[in-house]
Design goal:
3-stranded antiparallel β-sheet; 7-stranded mixed β-sheet; alpha/beta
Amino acid sequence: MIRIRLPLPQAQPLFDTICSGINSRQGETMSNNLILFGSTLGDTERIARRLAELLPGETRVASVANFRMASLRDFDRIILGTSTWGSGELQDDWEGALGQLSGLDLSGKTVALFGLGDASAYPETFVDGLGILHEAVAQAGALRIGYWPTEGYAFEASRAVIGGRFAGLVLDEAGQSHLTGERLTRWAQDLQASA
């Protein structure tokens, strides 16, 4: 045991600092959240960062382009985000990681998804990338939360519709960007209630 003797005026601030550090950790839960996104033009990354600001605690935000997929097992709560390209294709960075994702054992992990799409330009394949991610996460055995209503979107078909709901939050930045903030806030609240 090391003893340090300080005159009382100098000892009190040190004591207060130590105690405040201990007290701030009591009852504190370490955040083990991740938002992992694939983004080509920056929209999905921007949404991921906005979402992180709406969630309580610390949330790591990372690009799938330089993320080791096996590290997903290090997180308890995971949010995956993608855009849909062309006629229902998954964003390029996710293409390389998809096989690794579906091959992981994510049982015991909670996963939510969000996707960006353009309903006016691609109404037959609206947010299909979200559906592709959902299939991989289901194969990995994760508990999936954050399903989102299809009402309010004008589209013909989507691989992301599961049981009458979207597999996660859907944002149409091309045609409905004015609704993004409200939808993000509501979804973040839904996720917190599901935690």
